[in-house]
Specification:
Blueprint (H helix, E strand, L loop, with lengths): L5 E5 L5 H6 L5 E6 L3 H10 L12 H6 L8 E4 L18 H22 L6 E6 L10 H10 L15 E5 L4 E8 L10 E8 L6 H5 L35 E3 L5 E3 L2 H8 L20 H9 L4 H16 L1
Parallel strand pairs: 1-2, 1-3, 3-4
Antiparallel strand pairs: 4-7, 5-6, 6-7, 8-9
Helix pairs in contact: 4-5, 7-8
Length: about 325
């Protein structure tokens, strides 16, 4: 009997990775989330898993053997530094710098696993496509860090392509933009997914790419109303169009948190949690909207997990 795959999750949010990978038999080793409401969701939904908090403190703890060096590391470091909806300060933004802290954590895990005689970690990272056009070449810096290069990699064109592959001295890296609407959820949500590892028995390109294309549902047609990408901005004005839907009778209606959860692939009321000593039924909508908008699409993460599992187990 094979040992289950164990993973660590940073910038965990409400743990789309755990929801996605539970059915694969994977086990979370630890989470790392600092925001209060997502942390409350984690404590409520995953009470037996330790939330280690600040991800920047994990690398020394891994090297010291204080926390587990897992088989897989997943994370969606904050996208606000790269999003077109933000200031796009890239690595100058402390949230963007967490991307480099993520690389340091990957290195620490590999060092510890090497000491333990284990295979290197498999990395799964997610972010917005805006990272491709960051003015400080944040994506090139990130790729270089993972690959083990001494200076930032440069894109061959004006911006990084939507899919690519790097064979570096330390790790092999593949990336691809995937849209959640092709994985069975009713929203357009394009995100960059990176898979990387120093393992020699798997190829990240074969995890993210398929010769005959994705076997997925067709995108929604323009004949039916389709919600667009959810954001973490919550319920603001009509200009915040991502939180509204046009009904078949042409009315504009605000999406409820339960509908947002469904659009991301979560079970109904997944984010309905005990919050600030209130009753479960009194959980406010605002933090739920933000937490859901900051999360990953569960079906996309499940697909990536199943591809990793297939690569490892044949």
């Amino acid at each position: 009997m094979r040992n289950p795959i164990r993973y660590g999750s940073v910038c965990s949010g409400i743990e789309a990775a755990s929801v996605a990978w539970h059915c694969l038999g994977w086990q979370p080793a630890w989470f790392a989330e600092i925001e209060k409401f997502p942390s409350a969701v984690l404590a409520y939904r995953w009470p037996d898993i330790t939330n280690l908090g600040d991800m920047t403190k994990l690398a020394p703890a891994i090297r010291a053997g204080k926390i587990e060096a897992p088989d897989v590391l997943a994370g969606g470091t904050p996208c606000q530094a790269f999003s077109v909806a933000g200031l796009r300060n890239g690595l100058a933004d402390e949230r963007g710098q967490l991307t480099l802290a993520f690389v340091e954590l990957v290195n620490a895990i590999d060092e510890k696993r090497r000491e333990q005689g284990k295979s290197p970690v498999i990395v799964v990272w997610e972010n917005v496509p805006g990272v491709f056009s960051s003015k400080d070449n944040a994506f090139g810096c990130f790729l270089a860090g993972l690959a083990g290069e001494s200076c930032a990699l440069e894109s061959p064109g004006k911006r990084w392509a939507n899919a690519g592959y790097v064979l570096g001295p330390e790790r092999v890296i593949a990336w691809r933009v995937l849209d959640a609407q092709f994985f069975g959820v009713a929203q357009r949500r394009r995100r960059v997914f990176v898979v990387a590892s120093a393992r020699t028995d798997i190829d990240p390109a074969k995890i993210l790419f398929e010769c005959d294309g994705l076997r997925r549902v067709n995108p929604p047609t323009r004949k039916t109303p389709v919600p667009v990408c959810l954001t973490a901005r919550g319920a603001g004005s009509l200009d915040d169009r991502e939180t509204y839907i046009v009904t078949p009778d042409r009315r504009i209606r605000h999406l409820m948190p339960l509908e947002n959860e469904r659009q991301m692939g979560f079970t109904d009321n997944y984010t309905l949690t005990q919050w600030r000593e209130k009753k479960l039924s009194d959980c406010p909508d605002g933090p739920r909207y933000k937490a859901i908008g900051n999360s990953m699409a569960v079906p996309v993460m499940r697909w990536i997990g199943s591809r990793i599992q297939g690569a490892l187990h044949g």
